[in-house]
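pasting for the record
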Amino acid sequence: MRRVAVTGLGAITPVGNNVKDFWESLKKGFVGIGEITKFDTSEYKVKLAAEVKNFDAGDYMDKKMARRMEAFCQYAVAASREALEDSGLQMEQEDPFRVGVSIGSGIGSLQAIEREYQRLLSGGPRRVNPMLVPMMISNMAAGNVSIQFGLKGKCINVVTACATGTHSIGEAFRSIQCGDADVMLAGGTESAITPIGVAGFTALTALTDSTDPLRASIPFDKERNGFVMGEGAGVVVLEELEHARARGAKIYAELSGYGATSDAYHITSPAEDGGGAAKAMELAMAEAGITPEQVDYINAHGTSTHHNDLFETRAIHLAFGEAAGHLLVSSTKSMVGHLLGAAGGVEFIACVKTMEDGFVHPTAGYQVPDEECDLDYVKEGVRKEVNCCLTNSLGFGGHNATLCVKKYQE
């Protein structure tokens, strides 16, 4: 199999609209959660979300094009632009049919559905915007990125709920390994902080009703009671190693393993013994040719729901055995909330920056230990050399995905 390098990073997040600001916020433990401003929550039990701030799509693309995109597509294009510029890839020097896209969204545009349904009710079917469907469907994030940057290779949209971003990167990794592409833009994007989105997750009892932004998303804390919805995008440039070397690219890290499984258990709850998530971690480590003892850090799915954090802890114990005792485990969602389909993309970037900087960011807000969650969840940031890390994502429907990232060595 061909080796795969990470050569570009791009992010739009609740704590920064570029990778530098995003990472500096994580290192400081800055929490990007606040009161929902996108709609009136007076009748809602849930008041908090992690919204993207001060985003202007016109800063990243033609304003006319931006008007034909919903927010989830705008975020994807913005993050992709940063990742491409960061990579130094010059498309005029590339075969565009060898450069592809694997960017997923778990939901697509709830905003478009809500808006056009109101028009349908008030004015009948002829009032519905003819652009509804192409603005709503989740594959349009990948499609718009392809169009914006002239990427004519494989263009796919993986949809596995909260595992979407991680699966999208994993499938891009596979595409390069097997020779379908030389370069892939990969990651996830989401913007679902809408009336029906928040109402739906609230009805599912998945969201916290905390009104304290600093005690709302508290993964692995005994007082956790639900996740905080976030939004944004995380996109990376993956590149066949020899292709990257030949053009003198900066190589951030090597993506060396990918594991994907299904719990075949329940539509919302992970398997109670953690068996499915454990197998995904085991598969990723096996492909990377490493042992549990060689993993320094896990960026956990860590949603701040009771079941997820408990069952993911069990999964780590199952996959690592005694080696679990030396692991550092933290959750990016403690600061940015749960970005749903975009979570895996931004959390992969956090892993790459962790290795580059030699710093493991904290699980912000973690205060009250849970005797059933007994790993080192990094209460305070830790300065540490990290040579190998895993990132986990678990999605409704039982989807499990793990990526193994290593420091690049010749």
